[in-house]
Amino acid sequence: MAMAQSNYFSIKLTRFLMKIIGFWTVYTRKEKLMLREATYTATTAIPLLIATVKAITFTVRKPEITWLLERSQKYFWYKKYNASEKKIMDKLNKKSMLYMGSYTFFIYGTAVVYTVYPLFANIGRTGEDRILPFHFRLFKVPATRTPYYEIIFGVEVMSALHSGICFCCFDNLLCVLTLHVGGQFKILQNRLETIFGNFSERKSFETYEEFKECIIYHHLLITYVEKLECVFSFPLMFQLLMSSIVLCLSGFQLTMASEELVKKYLFLSYAISGIVQVYMITRICDDIMEESSSIGNAIYNCSWERTSYIMFNKFRKDMITVMIRTKYPCYLTAAKFFPISLKSFTNVMSTTASYFTLLQTMDG
């Protein structure tokens, strides 16, 4: 039943603005349909907006990305490793494939379901009632008539598949770079822990030089993370913010699509890919914090007590300096507001649940 309308302009304006963004209680069937249509459109448009923001940011930050790729090729990817370090890199590669493979699978699964959905929905339909993957209105173009329908359908399918590439390629790059810098912190820990493995006082100079190389490499890794922060800081903040909204809207659409099974699969794929994406981002950022802060423990566990206090006094002071530095771990932030970790994943899920509950309450 429709509620009485207020005659006060301030209330009308507030109600109008809140309805535009979808946060107003609906009463009539028309208003409910408008709410569901608005959330459906937002669910489709927001991922495209995210990909656009990332593309613009990466265009602006192209010099920093070039620096990151050059350092990755020189110090991470094409470097010769010993047996223990190679095991770390092999394990890292498997982890990267797991994250990137599962994430890309669900993202492309969503794009494929978008293209398959109208094929099933159009069974038994001919002419004017046929639907497209995305709503199309352009002046007086008869989008449901042949050959316009087939041409527009093909363009929308190619656009959906290309949008899937644009959406996941930036996150896959972040995953590769972040996991590898975390792996380099792990390799550095291994080098520091074994720096006194074949120690003898006759090799004190060589040992100290090796430690200095580790310090230089540690500084390189810190600089590398700072460059990552410079490039990905704003996109990560925008991604986490929008992910809460997308997960909420996809969950809301999933509960609304009670009669269309393919549509349920569409929004189920949306929800799963969104959860996988947020988990992957927060997990790899958490790995950087964990591995960079473990450098101090590796130095402490390097059997320094076997050395002479007089001969290695300066050595020990340098070790303490590095340990003090590692009390402040490297991390990536969301536009400098907060460091991203697994705690951010729980915060996003909590926010999503709150938005979802609010939408269901408004829908009645």
TrEMBL record:
The chain crosses the membrane at residues 97-117, 231-252. GO terms for molecular function: odorant binding; olfactory receptor activity. It is found in: Cell membrane; Membrane. Keywords: Membrane, Olfaction, Receptor, Sensory transduction, Transducer, Transmembrane, Transmembrane helix. GO terms for cellular component: plasma membrane. It is a multi-pass membrane protein. InterPro entries: 7tm6_olfct_rcpt (IPR004117). GO terms for biological process: signal transduction. The keyword Zinc does not apply. The keyword Transmembrane helix applies. Belongs to the insect chemoreceptor superfamily. Heteromeric odorant receptor channel (TC 1.A.69) family. This is Odorant receptor.
